[in-house]
Inverse folding.
């Protein structure tokens, strides 16, 4: 591979995007599971005799 | 007319197969490192033998078929279909030598289940299995399903008209199949390793939290991360994730499975900074919607039938199995006899349908794929709209998958054909299983589990299941993994090769 | 006099019956979980995992290919010295406790809350030895493989890169 001149800012930006992307995916999956827990909770609440 | 398949075509396939064998030989020697770490010296010969045989076969193939001709699409498709079979035959050797399975067929079942990322297991006594042999099983899933199948669908299946929506949209660049395979595999490998390491650390921490000792938590964490990201579902314990009895361990498994089930094209653009895409994409929308809908249904069923009564129980048992099924992972927290006998029929059928829908296209998951389901749903709406509007009105559909694309008839046809293929195989498999005398729900569950490469079991898959059923499931796993059409192309090519090959030989002799 | 006779008879009966009060099989528990729910059961099996959590512990026991989790005190878990793995057969223990098909305390797990946990027989090491035949075969095949690779690479002018691309 040819040596390319890249500024530190560019490298930083690329890596930040990478890390932010991974975080986004993890957060998204967690939010999805949280939604599922909420659904379970609401259903269990609706079912239990008050 | 279909062009003749001649010697040249078989040479191209054989040559590339030889190259793949050489790569596999290196792969099969990796567990030696694990054997050395754990002092399991007696297992080293198993891997040396496998590696040696693969190396010899690969180079003999290269020697006799050496060619510089470029690979075309038909060669690539045949190569893929053949690779999955032959690689698993070779990979079964250590399992067979280590007596990890009760017969040679079982060893093949196990390794095919590994390579296709299914996770149905017929291994005996997993709890007393050597670390190296166990690592080998998990590595098969990571390489075959975590990397291999994504490379194949991005670079090979994406070139066929029927699966054109799968094509790699990272950098539009026309190039030959081989260079594009190499370039794409590098990118996929990088991303897979990143998720593997993050997952392993998370699993290890969760393992320590559940009270596991450091050594096992690192090993188990690494193995489960490999199979979790690959949505494979093998586990280092016979109880699967139930062994750990911990909410956090299960949460890590679910998060990793959901990430593994996301489209690689999506990973690519999200990691490049286009994070909004994740919410705009038709596929993730469909996937999240069906996931939440199915978990609502299953929670409701389990609560109303009094199988489980608390929020935690419904989430950790019901929703966990569902997420595991929908992402086609196959981690389980319910023992299979309990699943088959204690759960009512409705949740079992809901899970079977979730398996058939599967995760996202171009991901490690199996099934029809959310992208196709999304496209089909959209097509239905479009058709209704078309019927209601005057004939002169032009109705055009669009869908957003990485970029806005028109909903053309080709796209719809491709999605419908693949979906039909899966449904046909599902019906056939269910009928065959029922023919062996199993219950309807259990048969549906087990068939979709094998066909969609899930790995949850209702107790049918075991070393003592009938041989005919083992072979049926092996065929289902193979065809399901390669999206049905690939296998049909290979069979047609072989038939053509044998039939036309005779013609070719006659021509030559005359 | 009568009291002693009754005692003797009951002792004899117990002696004969004791072996008949067999431990329930884990497979039986898994397959008939509804019938055993909330009942006191006795199971016997090999320890394949101990996960200590504060003053309690999860002990996973394996019997005849099926495994189940046992929730016991950390004190009881300390009796276990060998956990089953590739080089060990774990301790065999007998557990008497309440069976839950969906435990309310542990997120719906199928488990046994142990009341008593006794060590039946201690575990031991499994001797694993290197097979000279397989070792020789492995080495021969590997060396042949490498030689064939070198031969083909030289003969056909193939690149040495593992992927070959």
């Amino acid at each position: 591979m040819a040596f390319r001149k890249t500024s530190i800012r560019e490298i930083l930006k690329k890596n930040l995007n990478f890390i932010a992307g991974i975080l986004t995916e993890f957060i998204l999956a967690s939010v999805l599971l949280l939604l599922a827990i909420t659904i379970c909770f609401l259903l269990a609440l609706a079912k239990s005799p008050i | 007319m279909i062009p003749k398949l001649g010697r040249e075509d078989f040479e191209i396939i054989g040559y590339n197969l030889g190259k793949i064998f050489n790569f596999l030989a290196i792969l099969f020697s990796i567990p030696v490192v694990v054997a050395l770490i754990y002092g399991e010296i007696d297992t080293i010969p198993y891997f040396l033998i496998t590696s040696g045989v693969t190396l010899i076969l690969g180079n003999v193939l290269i020697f006799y078929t050496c060619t510089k001709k470029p690979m075309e699409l038909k060669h690539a498709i045949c190569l893929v279909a053949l690779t999955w079979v032959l690689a698993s035959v070779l990979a079964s050797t250590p399992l067979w030598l280590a007596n990890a399975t009760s017969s040679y067929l079982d060893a093949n079942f196990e390794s095919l289940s590994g390579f296709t990322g299914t996770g149905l297991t017929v291994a005996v006594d997993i709890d007393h299995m050597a670390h190296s042999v166990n690592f080998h099983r998990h590595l098969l899933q990571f390489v075959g399903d975590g990397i291999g199948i994504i490379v194949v669908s991005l670079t090979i299946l994406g070139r066929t008209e029927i699966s054109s929506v799968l094509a790699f949209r990272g950098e539009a660049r026309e190039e030959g199949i081989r260079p594009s395979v190499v370039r794409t595999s590098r990118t996929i490998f990088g991303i897979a390793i990143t998720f593997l390491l993050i997952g392993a650390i998370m699993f290890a921490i969760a393992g320590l939290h559940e009270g596991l000792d450091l050594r096992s938590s690192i090993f188990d964490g690494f193995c489960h991360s490999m199979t979790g990201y690959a949505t494979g579902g093998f586990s280092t314990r016979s109880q699967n994730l139930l062994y750990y009895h911990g909410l956090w361990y299960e949460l890590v498994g679910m998060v990793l499975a959901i990430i593994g089930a996301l489209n690689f094209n999506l990973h690519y653009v999200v990691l490049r900074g286009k994070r909004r895409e994740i919410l705009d994409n038709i596929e993730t929308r469909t996937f999240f919607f069906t996931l939440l809908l199915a978990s609502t249904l299953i929670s409701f069923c389990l609560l109303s039938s009094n199988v489980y009564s608390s929020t935690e129980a419904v989430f950790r048992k019901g929703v966990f199995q569902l997420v595991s099924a929908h992402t086609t992972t196959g981690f389980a927290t319910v023992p299979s006899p309990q699943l088959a006998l204690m759960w009512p029929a409705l949740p079992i059928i809901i899970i079977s349908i979730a398996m058939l829908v599967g995760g996202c296209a171009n991901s490690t998951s199996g099934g029809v794929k959310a992208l196709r389901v999304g496209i089909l749903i959209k097509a239905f709406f479009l058709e209704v709209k078309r019927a209601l509007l005057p004939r002169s009105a032009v109705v055009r559909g669009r869908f957003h998958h990485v970029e806005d694309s028109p909903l053309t008839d080709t796209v719809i046809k491709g999605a419908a054909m693949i979906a039909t293929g899966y449904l046909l195989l599902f019906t056939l498999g269910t009928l065959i299983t029922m023919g062996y005398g199993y219950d309807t729900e259990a048969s549906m569950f087990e068939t979709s589990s094998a066909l969609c490469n899930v790995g949850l079991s209702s107790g049918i898959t075991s070393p003592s299941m009938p041989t005919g059923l083992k072979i049926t499931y092996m065929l289902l796993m193979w065809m399901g993994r390669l999206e049905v059409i690939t296998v049909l192309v290979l069979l047609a090519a072989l038939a053509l090769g044998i039939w036309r090959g005779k013609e070719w030989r006659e021509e030559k002799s005359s | 006099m009568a009291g002693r006779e009754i005692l003797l008879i009951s002792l004899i009966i117990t002696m004969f019956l004791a072996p008949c009060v067999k431990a329930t099989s884990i497979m039986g528990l898994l397959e008939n979980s509804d019938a055993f729910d909330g009942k006191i059961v006795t199971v016997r099996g090999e320890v394949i995992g101990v996960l200590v959590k504060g003053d309690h512990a999860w002990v996973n026991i394996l019997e005849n290919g099926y495994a189940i989790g046992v929730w016991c005190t950390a004190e009881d878990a300390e009796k276990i010295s060998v956990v089953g793995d590739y080089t060990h057969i774990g301790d065999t223990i007998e557990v008497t406790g309440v069976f839950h098909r969906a435990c309310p305390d542990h997120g719906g797990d199928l488990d046994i809350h142990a009341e008593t946990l006794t060590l039946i027989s201690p575990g031991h090491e499994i001797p694993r030895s290197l097979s000279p035949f397989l070792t020789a075969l492995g080495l021969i095949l590997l060396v042949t493989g490498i030689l064939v690779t070198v031969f083909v690479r030289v003969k056909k002018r193939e690149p040495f890169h593992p992927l070959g691309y």
